[in-house]
Every structure is written in structure tokens, then in C-alpha cells.
Amino acid sequence: MPEGNADPLDAAVRSLARLIGSTPGPVRRARLQHGDLVVEVEWPDGAPGMAAVPPVPPVEADAGLHYVCAPMVATLYLAPSPGADPFVREGDQVVPGQQVAILEAMKMMIPVEADRAGEVVKVLVPNATPVEYGERLIALAVSEG
């Protein structure tokens, strides 16, 4: 469906997915209402996979690397569709805001974007793999300046 004629419910769900993907911590509750239709999802505090993963202290081999991490529990895809070229490959240069992967959670697709400029050193998670909140996905050698 063309962007200008997008279904309002579809647009609202996509907006909610972007909002959930941009939150700094795990989401406990989400509510979406469109007319008389209400969709509400709530996760208990102790739900499996919803607890924040404590940061892993860097080791010497990590010196100078920055990690793009999973903003939520989901399935990671490294390409926009099956058989398509990946968003990034090792050796590629990325800029802040550039899409480097996509997450699927509850049939919603949430883009994963680089938050720093740099070179992709290693893609740490295979395609179509479930990931946890805070899990390291891509290692970047941060660009100076």
C-alpha cells in the first residue's frame, strides 16, 4: 500500500514498534487504540527474557570497540528480506542512524540503527537468531571526530 494511503492502524502499530525499539530498557506494558479496537500487552516484572542484561565489563581485546546492542527481546535479521544483501558487512563504514539490522517481535519489525560512526569489525549474531535485551549484535571500531 503506498505510504500516503497507509492504513491508520498499520501506521499506529509501526509507530508503537519504533517507540518500543527506542526505549532504553525493557517494556513492561504497551497499549494501542484505534477507534473501538484496543490492543494491550503487559509483561510481568519477572517475565523470562525481559530483565535487563547487566553490562559486560570490557576486556583488553575490546579496547576501542563499540557495540550495537539489541534494544529488546526479538529475532534478529541481518537483511531486509530473505535472500537480500545484508544491511552491513564486516569492513563497511556506518554513520549514526544508519540501519544495520532489523528485529522482529510480535510480528512487528523494528529497525536497529548504528548509534556511532565507525567500521563494522564483526557481526556477532547469525541471521534469524533470537536475541536478548542488551545483547551485543555488531562490533564497531569507532571513527575519530
TrEMBL record:
Source organism of the structure: Micromonospora saelicesensis
One Pfam family cited in the UniProt record for this chain: Biotin_lipoyl
Keywords: Biotin, Fatty acid biosynthesis, Fatty acid metabolism, Lipid biosynthesis, Lipid metabolism
Biological processes annotated in GO: fatty acid biosynthetic process
InterPro entries noted in UniProt: AcCoA_biotinCC, Biotin_BS, Biotin_Carboxyl_Carrier/Decarb, Biotin_lipoyl, Single_hybrid_motif
GO terms for cellular component: acetyl-CoA carboxylase complex
Pathway in which this enzyme or protein is active: Lipid metabolism; fatty acid biosynthesis
GO molecular function, one term: acetyl-CoA carboxylase activity
Reported function: This protein is a component of the acetyl coenzyme A carboxylase complex; first, biotin carboxylase catalyzes the carboxylation of the carrier protein and then the transcarboxylase transfers the carboxyl group to form malonyl-CoA.
Signal peptide range in chain numbering: none
PANTHER family: OXALOACETATE DECARBOXYLASE ALPHA CHAIN
Entry's transmembrane regions: none
Lipoyl-binding domain ranges (all copies): 65-141
Protein name: Biotin carboxyl carrier protein of acetyl-CoA carboxylase
